[in-house]
Amino acid sequence: VPFALTHDAVTDIGDTASSSNGTEGWLGSLPNDYIIGNYIDSGLLLIFGGIPWQVYFQRVLSQRTAKRAQILSVMGGIGCLVMAIPAVLIGAIAKSTDWSKTDYEGPAPSSESDYKLALPLVMQYLTPTPVAVIGLGAVSAAVMSSADSSVLSSSSMFARNIYTPFRNAISECCGGGTASDREIVWVMRVSIFIVGALSCVMAIVVDSVYSLWFLCSDLVYVILFPQLLCVIYFPFTNSYGSILGYALGWIFRLSGGEPAFDLEPFIEYPWYDEEYELQQFPFKTMTMLISLVGI
User: Fold this and answer.
1) 156-172: pLDDT as tens digits
2) pTM (predicted TM-score)
3) Pair 252, 285: CB distance under 8 Å
4) Structural contact between residues 119 and 142, judged by C-beta atoms closer than 8 angstroms
């Protein structure tokens, strides 16, 4: 960030924050008042949708004491806020750069579809080569770490929480032994290949990795967060309510549509934007609450 901020092609981000001379500032503006509902929805989604992740609970359960687990969680939340600052600064730098004064030969990234190019372009053309190599390598390592952790956790959850109970139930009905550790390990290995293949297909179909990650938090917030909340704080809930809440979460979430998969909305909630085909009503939070009530 310091190298990019002091580059000769970058205008002071304080001067480019607001719109001037017909050029929109990097702070941007809201197209209408109703879009605030969408921002609130997304904010709650990112906050509460980041809790019911196995990768998070792996870190929590690895702590020796509950106190250390609490400290880890609080410090992790603070760390997320702090680490969001460089991302904001890089976006502001990209918006404040005169790309004609750099070695970049393509058209200036100005449309919304070009926003995903901000990080690689800033690193490649506004920082020294060693810094760019280290920075892009760190980003790639972080992405791969998250990807393999997600694949492994998905496979292990399938093997332990779905295959093993189903296999043992069949054994009780038809006779035979329960699933052995060796068998479960092989199921995990096969599941890793299947999950990896499905992930590759999804990555090819969907244009934006950010959209995929946001969609994961979306589904976790709508479907899993109510389940976790009830397990911890509402002991009177049962499996039937869990299944009902799961079904309601899926139904109402899909009813709002999903741009990442070109899924048209079945229900146009209040303040629906016909021009951009955008739900401006916080229907994801509404869906989460419906799922919670259903459980």
Assistant:
1) 888 888 888 888 888 77
2) 0.73
3) no
4) no
